[in-house]
């Protein structure tokens, strides 16, 4: 029962935050959307802020799972770059409300309460990517760089398109630029003498 109520409240919170933003959202609006009583809400979450943090971690976990799924089965360097970029773009387009929450809405003071859990989740994502990347760097199939630089070169340009899409500034599906984004990332991450030779 509690898990179901929790899921309903998280879904309602996502809907309300997406419609009006975190600041304007109210517990009453979230409860009404979830068809939950005041007691049910406060049995599961201590506050709107607590719900927002739990929602952030839940959405982040789904995003990370979608990204890491792109590395199974284990791809070579160019395939991996392509799959990771496509996984990011596919998730953003297919989970638009969640992506908007993760990348656009969740910039608020409540974020401090979930920073440790967020760091732990981000570390698991980084470890998953590094398990694929490290052997390719050692074999000269990917350029050596820090993991942070690797991810910024991999996802950074795609994220610019995604932010424009999520904010409504550009209605073009960011997946339409996937081939170009992948080609640019390959040039940034794969040694020139290894491109298309793997």
TrEMBL record:
A matching Pfam family: TetR_N
Transmembrane segments: none
Signal peptide interval: none
InterPro entries: Homeodomain-like_sf (IPR009057), HTH-type_TetR-like_transc_reg (IPR050109), HTH_TetR (IPR001647), Tet_transcr_reg_TetR-rel_C_sf (IPR036271)
DNA-binding region per UniProt: 26-45
GO molecular function: DNA-binding transcription factor activity; transcription cis-regulatory region binding
PANTHER family xref list: HTH-TYPE TRANSCRIPTIONAL REGULATOR RUTR, TRANSCRIPTIONAL REGULATORY PROTEIN
Name of this protein: TetR family transcriptional regulator
